[in-house]
């Protein structure tokens, strides 16, 4: 009996497959025609508001889609048969493939791509919703521990600096780019006094440690010392602003108070003449502070120098030079004759006046951008903030490297450290205010939403732990200062 060769058998098998495939398509087309005619008859009997012609067009389109899917299905069947044939041939030669898996891979190549896209969408949606849940949970916790108590509104331009008096009566002072400084009742939010003696932006304000005297620095290249007398009004009930429903981090539409004029407190008393005017800088005086005892003051200027003055005589005692670029801030130690100056040259310098015969200076290098402020703690630490988005804690006994570094997502402005618990308040360019401990652990973020909090860059923070209603104050370029109540024991317990 004649034996059929392998090549002729394969050719005959392929011819039968093509014949079967053509028969299937003809059978499918004839079946489709019968089906479409039947469906058109059914459409005529159905109640629909669509015109019959439109319904017929839709039916034709759906029929074409169905035919495409049927053709793909037939092609997949052909691929599966070819894979089985290949497996049989390889098995005869002693080899094998995972035919089922290969077939599945061939059949699901397109499906796998769609599945991966769907999976990615699900992951993104899940992460977004989870982030919202976690964010809202954290916001609820922050609002319970950190509550907005009062807003101090009246300046006509951004507020650069703020400070709280160290003597009775305790009032809040603000320094603004509108050329004024204001004193406020902490409990009522009422303006008690306005200082109008400067001819330029008022960049800082600090109060004398024992007397009712204020020190302000200005863009008019001077620093002023002026006396004040205020009478506190009767406290009003505190409105619980923190209970206002809000969503954390909702962005503000810039509808803004920045474009309109805010009616300032025109009825409050004003002072127009300084008790003492300190002149010797050749540039903007950006900051000033009292040395311990209040008999001397230090000023920092854009002329790259810091000056030490005698308050009684208003004479220049020392000119502290060495910075390579403009100064940004200065601060004095609360109990020792130490001064720290910050600069755009990425450094801050420690000036020691404890020994009258020797005035030593130490340079701290650790930031990569402008050092916006450096402040003392009660102990032997200095905390520095920078435009490089970091805050560093330094030990005065070991100044080579910081003992802690806090990394944030925005430039840091004039920071403050609470006296008792040493909590660092970080005001940011991105309108946020965050609280950290001295070891760099984040404690909280002050609530900010479209109903409360700052709506522009936050420029400065100041603690007043002895005040029962507001123990933290912040100000910014939204023209307002805000008083916060920070539940410090609860904050530290959550840590």
Structural summary, described in words:
- With 495 residues, the protein is of the alpha+beta class.
- It is 27% helix and 32% strand.
- It is built from five helices and 29 strands.
- It has helices spanning 6-45, 52-92, 99-107, 109-145, 488-494; strands at 146-153, 159-164, 172-176, 181-184, 191-195, 202-207, 213-218, 222-227, 270-271, 276-279, 285-290, 296-301, 306-310, 316-320, 327-332, 338-343, 347-355, 358-365, 371-376, 381-386, 390-395, 404-407, 416-417, 424-427, 433-436, 442-445, 458-463, 472-476, 480-486.
- The strands form seven sheets. The chain has a five-stranded mixed beta sheet, with no helix packed on it. Strands 1-29-28-27 form a four-stranded antiparallel beta sheet.
- Helix 2 packs antiparallel against helix 3 (99-107).
- Mean pLDDT is 82; it is low at 1-5, 21-28, 96-111, 126-141 and 241-263.
Keywords:
495 residues; 32% strand; alpha+beta
Shape, principal axes of CA atoms: elongated
Work out the helix count: 5
The termini sit apart by 93 Å
Helix content: 25-40%
Tell me how many strands there are: 29
Rounded mean pLDDT is: 82
Content-based structural category: alpha+beta
Which regions are unreliable across 5 or more consecutive residues at pLDDT < 50?
A: 1-5, 21-28, 96-111, 126-141, 241-263
Q: What spatial order of strands do you see in the largest sheet?
A: 2-3-4-5-9
């Amino acid at each position: 009996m004649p034996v059929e060769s392998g090549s002729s058998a394969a050719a005959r098998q392929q011819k039968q497959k093509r014949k079967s495939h053509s028969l299937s398509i003809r059978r499918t087309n004839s079946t489709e025609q019968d089906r479409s005619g039947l469906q058109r008859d059914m459409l005529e009997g159905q109640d629909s508001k669509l015109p019959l012609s439109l319904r017929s067009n839709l039916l034709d389109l759906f029929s074409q889609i169905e035919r495409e899917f049927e053709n793909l299905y037939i092609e997949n069947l052909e691929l599966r048969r070819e894979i089985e044939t290949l497996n049989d041939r390889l098995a005869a030669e002693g080899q094998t493939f995972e035919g089922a898996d290969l077939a599945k891979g061939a059949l699901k190549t397109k499906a796998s791509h769609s599945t991966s896209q769907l999976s990615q969408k699900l992951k993104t949606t899940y992460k977004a919703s989870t982030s919202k849940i976690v964010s809202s949970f954290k916001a609820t916790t922050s609002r319970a521990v950190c509550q907005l108590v009062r807003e101090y509104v009246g300046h006509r331009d951004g507020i650069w600096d703020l400070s709280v008096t160290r003597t009775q009566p305790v009032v809040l002072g603000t320094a603004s780019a509108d050329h004024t400084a204001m004193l406020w009742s902490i409990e009522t939010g009422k303006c008690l006094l306005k200082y109008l003696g400067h001819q330029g932006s008022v960049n800082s304000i600090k109060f004398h440690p024992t007397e009712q005297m204020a020190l302000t620095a200005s863009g008019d290249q001077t620093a002023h010392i002026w006396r004040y007398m205020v009478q506190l009004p009767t406290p009003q009930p505190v409105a619980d602003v923190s209970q206002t429903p809000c969503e954390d981090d909702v962005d503000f539409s810039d509808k803004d108070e920045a474009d309109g004029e805010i009616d300032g407190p025109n009825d409050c008393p004003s002072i127009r003449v300084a008790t003492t005017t300190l002149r010797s800088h050749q540039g903007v005086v950006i900051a000033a502070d009292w040395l311990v005892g209040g008999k001397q003051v230090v000023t920092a200027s854009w002329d790259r120098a810091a000056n030490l003055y005698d308050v009684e005589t208003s004479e220049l005692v020392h000119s502290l030079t060495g910075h390579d670029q403009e100064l940004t801030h200065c601060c004095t130690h609360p109990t020792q004759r130490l001064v720290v100056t910050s600069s755009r040259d990425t450094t801050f310098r420690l000036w020691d006046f404890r020994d009258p015969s020797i005035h030593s200076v130490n340079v701290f290098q650790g930031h990569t951008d402008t050092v916006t402020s450096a402040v003392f703690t009660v102990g032997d630490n200095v905390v520095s903030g920078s435009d490089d988005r970091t805050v560093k804690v330094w030990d005065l006994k070991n100044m080579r490297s910081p003992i802690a570094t806090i990394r944030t997502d925005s430039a840091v402005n004039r920071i403050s450290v609470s006296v008792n618990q040493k909590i660092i308040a970080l005001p940011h360019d991105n309108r946020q205010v965050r609280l950290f401990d001295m070891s760099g652990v984040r404690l909280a973020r002050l609530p900010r939403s479209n109903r409360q909090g700052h709506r522009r860059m936050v420029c400065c923070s100041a603690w007043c732990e002895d005040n029962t209603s507001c123990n933290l104050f912040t100000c910014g370029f939204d023209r307002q200062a805000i008083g916060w109540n920070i539940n410090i024991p609860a904050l530290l317990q959550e840590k």
